[in-house]
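Bench notes, afternoon.
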Amino acid sequence: MADTGELPPISDTDRRQAVADLRHWRAAVVVQGGLHHGDPVRRTVEALLGPAREIDGALVWDVRPLVG
């Protein structure tokens, strides 16, 4: 994904698994800093978790409403 720019297909099952993984790790936020091919990563994470907020140059997903 980050190397090719290709987005994988994202299903509802993928979204549920992402939330289950975040719950397991007791995550509150997901942060993406600068990556060489960051846009495909951002688009993929947004497909899983919803829109990000930019804070001081990083993309941040507050996942507390999803994992609560």
